[in-house]
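Lab notebook, design round three. We kept the backbone fixed and only want residue identities now. Task for the bench partner: fill in a sequence for the structure below.
Input structure tokens:
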């Protein structure tokens, strides 16, 4: 078979068939699930309603998703650099730091919070959250007016690139020639338009119903076709550079958008107005499909990626150009291996919402019947109109006292509550959202030990951490990878950015697009505590090395110590580290090292003695600090035993704390400590605080 170039009609046919197949797949296999998920999130169920019965609906889907989302958002917003570029060589160290800071700054500039919130919400409710990222070139016309310019000046102005003459008039005027003689010469007045082209990085959230992918795709990288199907106005297409006559004649919207319209209605809560009869042609809506697919358009035998822009119900091709990486980042919380669409949280618990609704309705009906029981009467012995009147204090006329009897309804709401609690436990097992993980369980530390409660919370947060990891390794990594590539390829000049407390020139053009990425993911207070403890230990080791070996130790720098302190503050929610610890430049740190080395050279004996004293003092301080930390840990463990054991252990800890404080220079009245064993506990303070406050 001989290879040949594709014609425009062949490209259109191939792309249209691929779009049709992707649309059929998404509408038949995915759209119905997303519509149902959105309905359940809004508080709807598929179980029927009976007249005269409770119509209450459980909102388990919405409640669970709203409980998960803050934890996921906090993972990526609380950290200063949730995604970091890792250098692949020594030459990339500075560039990696610059790229990390600049990419996050750019993301926040583009309303990163909203973009991330939309993507995570769609992933939790509708299987996938989609962010589209691209570089958009903008052409701006700047008008300039010139008066009394010479022929030479006129030639220089009109011969500039991207200049269009709008108005031009000429008049004769007297002037001096090159010899200094007065002569008559033409002078020009003109108005010109300078076209200035600028570019900017763009990121937008794509509604799930507008995103298409083929049936066999496992990711956006290996998909046969990935497309964004939306609606645009004729005016928008003209602004993009397309001919008005061409786009105004397009057939408008296609007729195969039933599920798309339904999804859009469920998402928005209302139906958009029909604009078929709009009088302004420029505001007519046209279906636009931006498809990315590989094809051998040039007949070389090797398929490459193309961006194909099609418009109208017939998918008329407006543009077909080679393209690089597919500009979509996909966010998923529970991906399914070897397939594109995974599961949402709504998919996991929709059936539980039906069950919870049925139980809740039954319980409410039971309570209503118990409070207002049915009554039986002897026909002809009771005035039925009086009986049907439920007015408080109303009279019922009857001929015999035995003519009216209550029909008791057994109260079973208690058993229903037990069943609903079991259902809540099942939902907790599926999603990881527990009262303990949210800090809402008042009995967590009363009925269980502190260690057990912490483990329980960590087990609950583990599933949420997996969701965060899936988002990080999938959508976030790809998003920042695409950002880096677009910034490197399209930036045309340096920019100034505050980095490490100083404004520095940033030039993305010199960055290495092959740098790796790492994502910092941690959820829950338990993990934050572990990270803080690890940083505290690291700081202790840094200070020990610095104290013992000096500034020239080759392992620890003041910048490294500052970074550790900054990370510790960040865990506590303090983002502006420069306010508390001034940044150190390489020059300043080099001066500090030089000054210390010079001082050591001038008086080596004194320096050695000072170092020894400092080291011993540091060891003593750290020993006291570690002893106090151990005491605090023991105090926390006291929460695991009953009150008698807690009291006994508290008194032991008080004595120990007093001994520690006495050892390091504090006088201790042991008689008061002995007396303290007979006194009531102070539940609002630690043993160390009690000793320091003089209450024991």
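Proposed sequence:
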């Amino acid at each position: 078979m001989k290879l040949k170039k594709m014609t425009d009609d062949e490209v259109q046919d191939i792309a249209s068939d691929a779009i049709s197949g992707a649309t059929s797949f998404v509408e038949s296999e995915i759209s119905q699930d997303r519509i149902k998920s959105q309905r359940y999130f809004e508080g709807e169920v598929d179980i029927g309603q009976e007249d005269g019965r409770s119509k209450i609906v459980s909102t388990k889907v919405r409640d669970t998703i709203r409980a998960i989302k803050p934890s996921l958002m906090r993972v990526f917003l609380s950290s200063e650099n949730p995604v970091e570029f890792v250098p692949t060589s020594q030459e990339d160290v500075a560039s990696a730091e610059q790229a990390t800071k600049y990419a996050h700054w750019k993301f926040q500039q583009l309303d990163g919070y909203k973009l991330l919130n939309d993507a995570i919400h769609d992933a939790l409710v509708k299987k996938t959250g989609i962010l589209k990222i691209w570089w958009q070139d903008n052409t701006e016309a700047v008008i300039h007016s010139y008066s009394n310019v010479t022929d030479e000046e006129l030639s220089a102005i009109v011969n500039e690139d991207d200049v269009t003459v709008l108005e031009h008039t000429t008049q004769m005027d007297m002037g001096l020639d090159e010899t200094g003689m007065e002569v008559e010469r033409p002078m020009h007045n003109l108005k010109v338009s300078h076209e200035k082209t600028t570019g900017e990085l763009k990121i937008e959230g794509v509604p799930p119903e507008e995103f298409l992918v083929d049936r066999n795709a496992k990711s956006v990288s290996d998909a046969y076709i990935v497309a964004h199907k939306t609606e645009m106005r004729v005016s928008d297409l003209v602004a993009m550079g397309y001919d008005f006559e061409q786009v105004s004649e397009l057939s408008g919207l296609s007729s195969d958008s039933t599920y798309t319209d339904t999804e859009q209605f469920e998402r928005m809560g209302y139906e958009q107005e029909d604009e078929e009869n709009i009088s302004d042609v420029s505001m007519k809506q046209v279906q636009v499909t931006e498809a990315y697919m590989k094809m051998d358009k040039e007949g070389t035998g090797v398929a490459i990626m193309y961006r194909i822009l099609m418009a109208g119900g017939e998918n008329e091709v407006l543009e077909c150009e080679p393209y690089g990486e597919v500009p979509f980042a996909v966010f998923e919380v529970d991906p399914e291996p070897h397939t594109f669409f995974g599961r949402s949280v709504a998919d996991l618990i929709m059936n539980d919402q039906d069950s919870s609704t049925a139980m809740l309705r039954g319980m409410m009906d039971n309570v209503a019947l118990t409070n207002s029981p049915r009554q039986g009467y002897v026909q002809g012995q009771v005035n039925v109109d009086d009986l049907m009147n439920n007015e408080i204090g109303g009279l019922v006329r009857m001929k015999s006292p035995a003519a009216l009897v209550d029909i008791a309804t057994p109260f079973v709401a208690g058993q229903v509550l037990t069943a609903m609690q079991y259902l809540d436990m099942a939902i907790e097992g599926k999603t990881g959202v527990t009262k303990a993980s949210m800090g809402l369980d008042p009995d967590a530390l009363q009925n269980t030990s502190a260690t057990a409660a912490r483990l329980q919370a960590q087990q609950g947060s583990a599933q949420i951490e997996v969701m965060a990891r899936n988002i990080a390794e999938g959508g976030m990594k790809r998003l920042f990878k695409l950002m880096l590539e677009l910034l490197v390829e399209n930036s045309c000049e340096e920019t100034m950015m505050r980095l490490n407390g100083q404004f520095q020139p940033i030039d993305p053009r010199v960055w290495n697009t092959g740098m790796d990425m790492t994502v910092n993911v941690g959820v829950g207070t338990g993990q934050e505590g572990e990270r803080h403890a690890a940083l505290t230990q690291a700081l202790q080791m840094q200070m020990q090395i610095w104290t013992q070996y000096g500034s020239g130790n080759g392992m620890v720098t003041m910048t490294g110590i500052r970074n550790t302190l900054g990370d510790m503050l960040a865990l506590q929610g303090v983002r502006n580290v420069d306010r508390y610890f001034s940044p150190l430049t390489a020059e300043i740190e080099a001066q500090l090292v030089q000054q210390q080395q010079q001082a050591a050279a001038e008086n080596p004996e004194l320096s050695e003695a000072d170092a020894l004293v400092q080291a011993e003092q540091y060891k003593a301080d750290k020993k006291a600090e570690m002893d106090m930390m151990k005491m605090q840990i023991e105090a926390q463990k006291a929460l695991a035993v009953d009150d008698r054991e807690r009291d006994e252990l508290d008194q032991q800890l008080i004595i120990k704390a007093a001994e520690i404080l006495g050892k390091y220079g504090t006088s201790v009245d042991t008689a008061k400590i002995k007396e303290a064993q007979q006194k009531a506990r102070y539940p609002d303070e630690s043993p160390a605080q009690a000793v320091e406050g003089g209450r024991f």
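Keep this in mind before ordering anything: Confidence is low (pLDDT under 50) at residues 439-453, 664-668.
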